[in-house]
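Worked example 2:
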Amino acid sequence: MAVDENDDGEIKIFSDGEQKVILDVFSQNDAGGMLLTGKTGTSNVVAGSANNGSNGIVQVYDTLDNVAVEIIANGTNNGEITLHRLGKKRVQLDVFEDNDAGAMLLLGINDSVNVIAGSSSNGSRGLLSVNDSLGNAVVELTADESDAGRIQLNDASSNQTIVLQGASGLIQATTVTHTSDR
């Protein structure tokens, strides 16, 4: 074990000659941090601060030294948990600022949001959005203003094409093209 002999705000802990823990004061944001390394010397866990030192962050790394899990207070007083695969974001649990409600985003291999599970505009009704490869909603399941179910199908340009609305029993088709091979 070593002590801050250089008075540089850093304490290192060694095991069998290998550095395993670093406690540090980061000069960039004047906040404390900690790095835990694995048996191969790569990062396992980093705990510290984000957003100029005003918010906490914890990052857990995979064997290739990529962030696999990140937990952060994101600067807008919201907590956020992000899961990564090989350094790419794949799942994000968050709070939408515009309606103060929880949300889960699932991302595809093209880094576009494939699915959003969250709340509608006022934050008190559920929303499930299935998106195309560009992140545009093509299927939306919601509870409408009367708390009845609503299913909306959109075309590739995000134009509403079919709506099924539970409150009124409405089935609305804006544009329907029928083709048959019979």
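The mean pLDDT is 85. The first strand starts at residue 10 and ends at 15.
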